[in-house]
Q: What sequence folds into this?
């Protein structure tokens, strides 16, 4: 059987995050620093208690411990901030443990989840407020025991938010992230289906011939590597090391923001114009073991692109399909179905020995991905190979992928 993953067309609202940057005042800087510190302490204390216990206590028991801790002299300063973000920190810990336990039992798909770790002061900080602890008033956002914040409203919120998270990243930038419900958008698709082949220099090649090159991250990447070598020679705890760490974080943000902007625009274009979207399941964790290509692969964000396309497919009411990674999409002619076998990565153009048509390697793979995704393929029982794929194609080999007219 072919391993396909389908995402049905949904008519219900989906939850979406809207993020806005804001610049706090000096007083708000201090209040937010106190809030982040309290959230971090509550999370770390609960995690330390959970590790010391024979069995995970659970959210209710940890919440009771937090209430008792506020009455002690050592933790009475937890009363100075809103209790809502502190309770949300315990819920986040409970969710992390649930994902870890489900992963150990095999109930959770994907890569095995690791147990939660202690939060550090130098990493990104966050605090979540629910409806009871925040409100919107004109251009301002009121947070309990923080005051009014004035974010830069780059776009309007589509509906009333159910929660808001205050985020401070490693480069000392502040954001407000709102969770809102968005109704599916009804837009007529230009194309019925499209297959997408992902690569390095050319990030995506569509089955209709469109190509999209990935941004050039090499300049910022070289700067990060240079600063990291400098950081390794500096004394821990020194002011110069702290300044270097901030420069590294800002350079990482330049790379991440460039990549995020590119992936959002491309995923939106793909989801708006195509009714059925087919991607190939890539073994990224195995591919990054190649020492020569690991850095370039990690910079592309293939997994992030897949997540964005899947989310926007639900938003626009599209069908999202993922085919098996074992499909020989690069080894088969998309016109006649002739199988020529494995190709070296340096081979970018192929001439079919059977029909004589010339194919671009990536565009041919994208067309085959589309055909497998929409079901234009032989039954696997008839086309199963007895031996392994060879480097030289055999004329007598049966094709696993054919066009509809050749079936």
A:
């Amino acid at each position: 059987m072919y391993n396909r993953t389908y995402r049905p067309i949904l008519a219900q609202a989906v939850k979406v995050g809207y993020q806005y940057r804001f610049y706090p005042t000096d007083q708000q800087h201090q209040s937010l620093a106190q809030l982040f510190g309290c959230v971090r302490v509550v999370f770390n204390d609960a995690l330390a208690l959970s590790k010391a216990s024979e069995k995970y206590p659970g959210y209710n028991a940890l919440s009771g411990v937090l209430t008792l801790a506020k009455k002690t002299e050592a933790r009475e300063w937890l009363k100075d901030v809103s209790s809502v973000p502190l309770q949300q920190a315990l819920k986040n810990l409970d969710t992390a443990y649930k994902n870890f336990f489900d992963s150990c039992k095999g109930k959770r798909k994907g890569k095995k989840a690791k147990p939660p770790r202690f939060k550090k002061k130098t990493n990104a900080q966050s605090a979540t407020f629910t409806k009871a602890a925040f409100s919107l008033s004109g251009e301002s956002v009121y947070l309990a025991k923080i005051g009014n914040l004035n974010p830069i409203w780059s776009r309007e919120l589509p509906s009333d938010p159910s929660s808001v998270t205050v985020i401070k990243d490693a480069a000392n930038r502040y954001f407000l992230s709102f969770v809102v419900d968005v109704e599916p958008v009804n837009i007529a698709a230009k194309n019925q289906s499209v297959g997408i082949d992902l690569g390095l220099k050319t990030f995506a090649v569509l089955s209709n011939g469109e190509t999209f090159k990935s941004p050039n991250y090499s300049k910022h990447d070289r700067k990060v590597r240079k600063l990291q070598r400098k950081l390794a020679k500096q004394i821990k705890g020194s002011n110069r090391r702290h300044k270097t760490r901030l420069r590294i974080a800002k350079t990482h943000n330049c790379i991440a923001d460039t990549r995020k902007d590119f992936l959002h625009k491309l995923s939106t274009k793909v989801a708006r114009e195509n009714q059925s979207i087919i991607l190939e399941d890539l073994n990224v964790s195995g591919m990054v073991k190649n020492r020569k290509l690991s850095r370039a692969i990690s910079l592309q964000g293939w997994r992030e692109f897949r997540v964005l396309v899947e989310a926007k497919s639900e938003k626009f009411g599209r069908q999202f399909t993922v085919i098996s990674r074992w499909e020989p999409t690069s080894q088969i002619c998309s016109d006649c179905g002739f199988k020529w076998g494995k190709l070296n990565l340096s081979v970018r153009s192929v001439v079919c020995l059977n029909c004589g048509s010339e194919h671009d390697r990536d565009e041919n793979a994208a067309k085959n991905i589309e055909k497998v995704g929409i079901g234009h393929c032989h039954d696997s029982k008839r086309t199963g190979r007895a031996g392994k794929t060879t480097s030289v194609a055999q004329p007598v080999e049966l094709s696993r992928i054919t066009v509809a007219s050749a079936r």
